[in-house]
Design brief:
With 84 residues, the protein is mainly alpha-helical. The chain has one domain (3-83): Orthogonal Bundle (Non-ribosomal Peptide Synthetase Peptidyl Carrier Protein, Chain A), CATH 1.10.1200. It has helices at residues 3-14, 39-53, 70-83. It starts with a helix and ends with a helix.
Length: 84
């Protein structure tokens, strides 16, 4: 896992209270299927990610594809972190 993926894993455990051993979380895990995150959880995840990485994710990028897995969200974060 890269640094962004590791930080996303921390957000899941510390801020979204996902009940899973941190060592078991993989980059390919899905937010909805593997972690049971619902629509309100996705809004909270977006907020926590924006705060943690000091970025703003535009509404056009707040899509199921970008928020499907840890890896897809890390790629999105990396795109905005580079332009920030």
């Amino acid at each position: 896992m890269n640094e962004i993926e590791l930080r996303l894993r921390d957000i899941l455990i510390d801020d979204l209270f996902v009940e899973r051993d941190i060592e078991q979380i993989q980059a390919s895990d899905t937010f909805r299927g593997d972690f049971g995150i619902d629509s309100l959880g996705f809004v909270e995840l977006k907020t926590q990610v924006e705060t943690a990485f000091a970025i703003t994710i535009p509404d056009d990028d707040f899509t199921p594809e970008n928020f499907a897995t840890i890896a897809s969200l890390a790629q999105l974060v990396g795109r905005f972190a580079k332009t920030a």
